[in-house]
TrEMBL record, chains A, B:
It comes from Planobispora rosea. Ca(2+) binds at D103, E171, E173, D203. Mg(2+) binds at D203, K223, T227. One of its GO terms (molecular function) is metal ion binding. SUPFAM superfamilies: FAH (SSF56529), Fumarylacetoacetate hydrolase, FAH, N-terminal domain (SSF63433). Its cofactor is Ca(2+); Mg(2+). It comes from the Bacteria. Pathway: Amino-acid degradation; L-phenylalanine degradation; acetoacetate and fumarate from L-phenylalanine: step 6/6. It is an enzyme of class 3 (hydrolase). This is fumarylacetoacetase. Residues 10-95 form the Fumarylacetoacetase N-terminal domain. Keywords: Calcium, Hydrolase, Magnesium, Metal-binding, Phenylalanine catabolism, Tyrosine catabolism.
Length: 381, 381
């Protein structure tokens, strides 16, 4: 029997409440159950509505807690059984209180594709792109958990043109949850002491709003209406077998951006539109790795807080079927996607559901699943 | 005798602790004293380290509380006297827990000046500028209270060039503190039901880092190392006599940006370098008014949270002595400022102290002071 992708090698953290009004609390997913950690570990840090208090204990506590949970599940099933709740009897919540949310732009192919479309008369990549991981701050207050309906945003789509976005899109990304803070005026230390785990991110994007507003200060309302994340935060330790060196870089990055510890990640993403796979973005093809993003984000002395979230930017690989956004998959709507029911899509229509999933190699040839991030488009108000 | 600029018509809110380790709590400034509100009003909502819990009560409570405080101070000085603490015996703290921080770009002159310097071969204003208040998200975790030392940031200043910023600058701005939330997928309502008050903002900026990094996604590390705000939040009601229609706009803004209620503000800012006035930016000259910024920020369905902060962007007026940043005052360093001691400045040097103050007209020909925002530059680490 193949090991479950939600077995002992995975154990992602989330926040749940039992159907019927219990206040949210922290659990780990194990198979098709949630383990109630406050009950199983007799620790009130888990009887709160976010992972932040637990994360604030630091990376040694993260490792120890994971070891304790694994041990209990493996060796004393009878003791934990009363604290295992079937997934279909819980509601999942946003797992973290988000501090700052930063979105990067780390795929060479995504940045090149968007450059070609948004600035057809220029070099696709700006001169800085190969020298630093380009990023910007997004809106942390509109980070929502998977399953939250996405209301189609309205806004300006050009001079004097106002209305619902006609180019509603997704960006399939990987997000990194900061559990270890750093001081103002200092820099981040080791990646694994700051980053607690990863989550899938859908950075919903209104391309028509974005294209009109984004010069010169960057994307704003074209992104800020919603960003969805998975309810499950996969701890870094569960990704040990997914670690790869990361894509070759030219020119050689500056010292502060030198990679340490192989934090390229061999994750296979899938993007589904109404259940049908439309793209398979390979995370291992990303140009900038998450340790580089972290080093860059703090090199100017910016502090980190527990709960900060940063995302990779759209994961797009070199092949056409590996692009993580519809603007790329349909080349700004000029090459519609054909779906199996005979219909076509350029950008998203009301009622469409987009679901992003991912897997990683586990330690024994098995597979680890990341929590999916899904959302359905509701009509504009 | 002239009325104090910190009298009954002002009464800004802040968070203080008595020298000697008391936990921070909410007060209002009255003359050279702080009124301890938890003590004076017997209300535990003020016995917390930020204004957020009080702000969450809503705009009716803001008005009622202000009326009660004014009445007590005016009619029953003996009763409040035990709760008045001399300013020189308290420490002032960051007054709010900042949710999201958005920075706009609302001065026609500032946007034009920067366009001329950063993009000399193009029209200074981008095509969108007169159609919408351009803005972007900044880093809320590095918003600090006035007096916090500012460590000179390091970063990339060009391809392969790394080191301390050689173009450290300020931006003199007005900030708006959101006390009334709005739902995801909805829009903000009346300005005065969402915005609790105003604060002076210094959006410290490293121009060399910013110029290299900011395409195409906007400013990031050139700004995220620190943003200083005043310890005092001036309630909107104290600015009643400062309200003006706002500068004429051409073209006519779209419906959702139509002004309501005269939220142009006749504030006179002063920027001091090491005590010497170097600029007097007039807030009333701003092109986009704060009610327009609020409407724009939420037109796409983005929610507001208690504690969100948004700022106007650099306040620069039409005259040379009214520019709110050194990059403008010195035209990117090409026209140094002469100081009274015979020295000159282009950008900031280590040890420099920048202080921004402002006044507004009060109800009886008197003057209201805003809390100053000040910071001293420390050497790079």
């Amino acid at each position: 029997m193949t090991a479950s992708p939600w077995g002992l090698d995975n154990l992602p953290y989330g926040v749940f409440s039992r159907t019927g009004g219990e206040t949210p609390r922290v659990g780990v997913r194990y198979g098709d159950h949630v383990l109630d950690l406050a009950g199983a570990l007799h620790d009130e840090v888990f009887a709160t509505g976010s992972l932040n208090a637990f994360m604030a204990r630091g990376s040694a506590a993260w490792r120890d807690t994971r070891a304790v949970i694994r041990n209990k599940l493996a060796t004393d099933p009878a003791a934990v059984e009363p604290h295992l709740i079937p997934l279909d009897r819980v509601r999942l919540h946003l797992p973290i209180e988000v501090g700052d949310y930063v979105d990067f732009y780390c795929s060479l192919e995504h940045a090149s594709n968007l450059g070609r479309m948004f600035r057809p008369d220029e070099e696709p990549l700006k001169p800085n792109w190969r020298h630093l991981p380009v990023g910007y701050h997004g809106r942390s207050g509109t980070v929502v958990v998977s399953g939250t309906p996405i209301v189609r945003p309205s806004g300006q789509r050009g001079a004097g043109v106002f209305g619902p976005s006609a180019k509603l899109d997704i960006e399939a990304e990987l997000g990194f949850v900061v559990g270890g803070p750093s001081p103002l005026g200092g820099r981040a230390g080791r990646f694994e002491d700051h980053v607690f785990g990863v989550t899938l991110v859908n950075d919903w994007s209104a391309r028509d709003i974005q294209a009109w507003e984004y010069v010169p200060l960057g994307p704003f309302l074209g992104k800020s209406f919603a960003t969805s994340i998975s309810p499950w935060i996969t701890p870094l330790e569960a990704l040990a077998s997914a670690r790869v060196p990361g894509r070759a870089q030219d020119p050689e990055p500056l010292d502060y951006l030198r990679r340490a510890g192989q934090w390229g990640l061999d994750l296979a993403l899938e993007v589904r539109l109404n259940g049908e796979v439309v793209s398979r973005p390979p995370y291992r093809e990303m140009y900038w790795t998450p340790d580089q993003m972290l080093a860059h984000m703090t090199v100017n002395g910016a502090s980190l807080r527990v709960g900060d979230l940063y995302a990779s930017g759209t994961v797009s690989g070199p092949e056409a079927g590996q692009r993580g956004s519809f603007i790329e998959l349909t080349w700004n709507g000029t090459e519609p996607i054909k779906l199996s029911d005979g219909s076509v899509r350029t950008f998203l229509e009301d009622g469409d559901t987009v679901t992003i999933t991912a897997t990683a190699p586990g330690p024994d040839g098995n597979v680890i699943a990341l929590g999916e991030v899904s959302g359905t488009v509701n009509p504009a108000r």
